[in-house]
Design a protein that fits this description.
This protein is of the alpha/beta class and 265 residues long. 48% of the residues lie in helices and 15% in strands.
Length: 265
């Protein structure tokens, strides 16, 4: 029951993470068959509630990608509940200081490292005694999002909290907090300097860094910079971009065909 995502990260590999906004298990099932190393169910800004998240976890089960979840907030009830449902990692928004990072660890890990309540209804085996509680702490990723000026100021203190697995950068909120446009795939020197600081800080502690990206090209740039978990767009964005491209290309080809016919008439 070892977390294969953690094993790959420990080997220094870059892991490509997908993002599930749509609250539909069929979408999760389709995404699970397209080669992602992990898929994150978004309960913060996505359309998911707990029920749809469980259905998506069921759709992902045994299909390859490691299931992660971004929770709505740093609140132990939903964190424990989604871990019990079978998520193997938590991305938590707006973790701004070491105290909040310790609260996140408490919610994610069992005693003595944390204070998570026992009851892994889906995460454990069915019908037999489960070894889950004995291996969960070593196999659950605990990733606070670094997305505010305060979080950047307290970055090293956050990463020094025992049980934290690394840092996950939220570029749009980070930019917004710095008075910039809330976009992904950033090129501002002051933002790129923060990325360099995050990479240096996690490497010094043998931890990992992740980042949200809007495009595959930028995700590859961030992997080259040193981020080990690179998220590429979302299910909804990918569907929308593919649909737009299909419609635009079809109309262009129709016009080209009509022009050719008119020229030869």
């Amino acid at each position: 029951m070892a977390n294969p995502l953690i094993e790959r990260l420990k080997r220094g590999e870059v892991c490509v993470n997908g993002w599930l906004l749509a609250s539909d298990s069929y979408v999760a099932e389709v995404m699970a068959q397209t080669g992602w190393d992990s898929l994150t169910i978004d309960l913060q800004h996505g359309l998911h509630d707990y029920r749809s998240a469980v259905e998506s976890l069921q759709a992902l089960h045994g299909r390859g990608p490691v299931p992660l979840a971004r929770v709505p907030w740093n609140e132990p009830g939903i964190i424990g509940k989604i871990l019990d449902a079978g998520a193997w990692g938590i991305i938590c928004p707006m973790v701004n200081n070491a105290e909040q990072a310790r609260a996140l660890v408490d919610a994610c890990l069992y005693a003595p490292q944390g204070a998570r309540s026992n009851g892994p209804v889906r995460a454990g085996f069915y019908g037999t005694a489960s070894p889950y509680q004995g291996i969960a702490n070593a196999n659950v990723l605990v990733l606070p999002q670094i997305e505010t000026v305060e979080a950047v100021e307290n970055l090293e203190a956050i990463l020094d909290v025992p049980g934290i697995s690394g840092a996950y950068v939220g570029p749009s909120d980070l930019g917004l907090a710095m008075g910039l446009a809330p976009v992904l795939d950033r090129q501002e020197p002051e933002i790129l300097a923060i990325y360099d600081r995050v990479i240096a800080a996690v490497r010094a502690r043998n931890l990992i860094a992740g980042i949200q990206n809007g495009t595959a090209a930028y995700a590859a740039e961030m992997a080259a910079k040193g981020f080990q978990i690179v998220t590429v767009a979302t299910d909804v964005n990918l569907m929308g971009m593919a649909a737009f491209q299909a419609v635009t290309t079809t109309r262009t080809l129709i016009k080209q065909s009509a022009s050719t016919e008119a020229a030869t008439a």
